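Follow-up to my post from last week.
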Amino acid sequence: MKTQAIYDQNPEATDLLSRTWRSPPGFFGWFTHVNQSRIGYRFIVTSVIFFALAGVLALVMRLQLISPENTLLGADFYNQLFTMHGTTMMFFFAVPAMEGLGIYLVPLMIGTRDMSFPRLNAFGYYVYLIAGISLYVALFMGMAPAAGWFSYVPLANIAFSPGKGMDLWTTMITFIEISALAAAVELIVTILKQRAPGMTLNRMPLFVWSILVMSFMILFAMPTVMAGSVLLALDRAFDMQFFVAAGGGDALLWQHLFWFFGHPEVYIIMVPALGIVSTVITTFTQKPVFGYTALVLSLVATGFVSFGLWVHHMFTTGLPHLGLSFFTAASAMIAIPSGIQIFCWIASLWGARIRFATPMLFVLGFFAIFVIGGLTGVMVASIPFDSQVHDSYFVVAHFHYVLIGGAVFPFFAGLYYWYPKMTGRLMSERLGRWSFALIFAGTNLTFFPMHQLGLQGMPRRVYTYLSDMGWGELNFAITIAAFILAIGFLLTLINAVVSRTRGVAAGNNPWQAETLEWATTSPPQNYNFRHLPIVHSRTPLWDEPDSSHRQVVAGLRADRRELLITTLLEAKPQSVLIMPHPSVWPFLLALAVGFGFLGFMFQPLLFVAGFALSFFMIVGWLWPRKPWLDTGET
Amino acid sequence: MCPAETTRLNFAVDATHFSRFHSGSDAPIWWGIIGLILIEMSVVAAFVISYFYLVMINPSWPPIGHPASELLWPTASVVILLMSCVTMYLASKAINRDRITAFVTHTSISVVLACAVLVIRWQQFQTFDFRWDEHVYGSLVWTISGFHFLHVVSAAIGTAVVATLGALKFFNSKQRIAIVVDTMYWNFVGLAWIPFYLVLYIVPRLT
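User reply:
Got it. Predicted complex:
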């Protein structure tokens, strides 16, 4: 039968497959793309742009602090800058960047053609884009939120932050979490149901494990901040009393709701980073990672324990001491799974012939920076110490070490490592090494002195200070160092742009890695794999070096988007899923939802209008096809 | 790809005759809806926990001068929503046997029951003797009520669409995953009223 177009070796079938999975070209076509590699790529590029924007904000802040009583910025604009810097880095860079890597790589690593819900994927991206653009438009109009990235009440209440900036923050946080939750759900489902035949859970690449753990954490952490920010929005819009003491509300309720999300958030960012570290170490030592099971269990344990730590952000709020002690213990406990992982990695590196390419350098940088951040973490987990340094530059130093060490270094390692897969070209090693050296030196020079400033009493979030305080010299040095750090980041950015056209052609597997994403072309075709692979071990590419003898799946049709569903634990072939076509509905839905949320800030009734509009978009999106039985199918 | 290379491919799994239809946990969308329900349950939990937190820090609950609301109509809502879960179950049974008319009838009854609940709730809103901006008690009652109201509206509209598509013969015993997941979500919305009912109407009588 002609339409059958059996999934075989002939070149016509390949052409047909290619046409079936094609992303429509052109400007209007752009809004209909659903292929996971396109969406993942957009997530990564967009998050890097937000990273750069937030970095520029940080430099402007550093310029303000270069000398005592500097007048470059006013207090209110400075408040907007640090709020936007934190909000962007946490919500618009770190989480989407990790999710972007997950969306791009997971289907490739588990050997499938796309994510489970491609249109939801696209929707998540547009939501993210709209939220980010709205916040930055507000910043340029001078009406950005200014109550810090965790928006503590009562400062964030309508009485003390009367402008639209805070409203924008509450609505956009709710909005961006929709994007994160959508990505989390489909990453989970894709990982559980679409693994290549034979890829049992204990053969799954560690990066995929880390994305799975991250997604589950998002599932349980993000709803809390959504609920919290909705309550804050209601307080502000309708004079509700959730966080207003006079009306029986409570300011600490906000802190609980926020940090119940906020602490897992740190690990939501870090867990995928740990997955990157394991991946890079495996490849650059060319041997299976030491302690696979221990590493997986540590990731899962980190996920669980991270939900029991949130109160350590609230040690100075006057909560009962007995309760606080529990959170100190839990905070110390998280060092156990982290320690196990570090030891597994050391054991992996021990005696191996390490290839010191740029990704590996960033991983080694991660060790140094992250361990320093971890050590100060143990210090601030102790209540008496925390009471001294709370809200000081010591804490600023601590969390920048943790986040830059725990997320940015591994992300850059991942960027250098997977760039050839995504673009087909290698990034320049030379520029990469320079970039690494400057980032490593810059990070330490910028943030290490902040420990000292904190111990000397400099509070965080002050737009200026008096020269009598004696903080001038260190601040001057830090500002210079911040620019060194920025140049380091800039070099990688330049490297990424230039290598896009001038890089050395990479081939399928430039690093001789072992996981499935390297089994296909670089960049992958829209259908990812010409033949879906079958897996027999944790390191398929090392165990079956002869690509022509690989076992593959036959019988998927090429004339419509089909992929294989497998069982949850054993990954036994189960059925075939027919995937949706490119569609503009996700974009329209994102617009409708965005209209509802942004409209709510000005006129609450517009939320209802957005709700109604969304209904039509959802029906258009989900409109089912008539049964296919008449074509004689099983 | 050069033919010489591909001739040696080893087709170890042949998916030609695998089913293209899913009706349960073999379908990704089934897991997707489980994910959505988990997310919403986390939101419900966040509201309920916030409620108890605020009960704990307030000296009198409900605030003096606001007696706890009467129970008749809220309890009726619980019963009606549970009934609608039963009619949705019957609708699923009907589509499993390809009985389209019975399917449309039962889904329509479910929608009507949901609308009855909406009318009752709307009526209740009129009788609340406190505003949302007076005290956090009012804020909670209005927010939780509104949250659940919106969910019943979504479930009713969604199921009305499913009933219409059913009448247009879009579904049958093989292609019914949309109905399966709609029913799952319906059950969640129906059952979510129980914890809300308990905190809004029973807890104020106990404190």
